[in-house]
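Interim report to the steering committee. The following record documents the input for Isopentenyl-diphosphate delta-isomerase (353 residues).
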Amino acid sequence: MPETSDRKDDHIRIIEEEDVETAGTGFADVDLVHEALPEIHRDEIDTTTTLFGHELAAPIVIESMTGGHANTTKLNRALAEAAQETNVAMGVGSQRAGLELDDEGVLESYTVVREVAPDALLYGNVGAAQLLEYDVADVEAAVEMIDADAMAVHLNFLQEAVQPEGDVDARGCLAEIERVASELSVPVVVKETGNGISRATATRLADAGVDAIDVAGQGGTTWSGIESYRAAAVGASRQEQVGQLFRAWGVPTAVSTIESATVHDRVITSGGVRSGLDIAKAIALGAHAAGLAKPFLGPAGRGTDAVVDLIETLTLELTTAMFVTGSASIAELRETDYVVCGRTKEYLDERSR
């Protein structure tokens, strides 16, 4: 299946070269209430948190995006080295290519992460659609490939629907997710890929026993848009049009965070997270950590130091938000006051009827 590997390379190129950003996360409608008398020392604020039994220096996840093509090995090395140095979490891109292709270069694009990050919290990645073909032993092979601490199962059915070669059979995926969550040797995270998770879906996943939900809401990188560019390149005009039509489809990230956190006690927020203030807002809305993907891509191309610099900037922004809300710890930040206005409030009000 060489096209799987080539597709991964296409994705990185399109993200770097084309307009694949959308607005609408809802974070602009969320205000944390200012504390004029925080009564804490900023330099003593504790940003540590625990995820899957690992203590992280900050609630930051380098989201799944790379791996599956030899050209991505350099990127994954830089990302993993930075995760090791700063003690944040990292996920790899879909491991389908590594499981199905007999190619040492492809395999190295994944295995490099544990080689350079022996102590970091790393999680693997397989697609929900592939669970219809894989048994638990196959998913365990993905765990072993990177000595993963957790495994993400990604939901990307809108993306698949836009791909000319996409897998659009979603029947039976929930039962397979439940089976893997029950039998796999490591915790299972179910993550969307930019279109969000509603309260009803989060409830079904919680009932299925998944260990965490990564909402990956609407806003930020649009995979529908990415696949639209790919479709255009191969002359698939209908898929190109569908991809553009649905490029801003989904549950906004802020809404998805709030709804998922009401039914599951471990939520990761991603989807248009672009600053430490966004991370702070996500945690106030109920998340345990927040993840970014595209913002790390450019720095990864420049090397480990650039990735570390971004993580340190995000952490300072997060710490500042904690300081001016009087939050001495992540636990306190989760209890801080916030106000929701605008379209996000309207969306939530309509959803609560």
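The longest helix spans residues 304-323. The committee is asked to note this result when reviewing the revised timeline.
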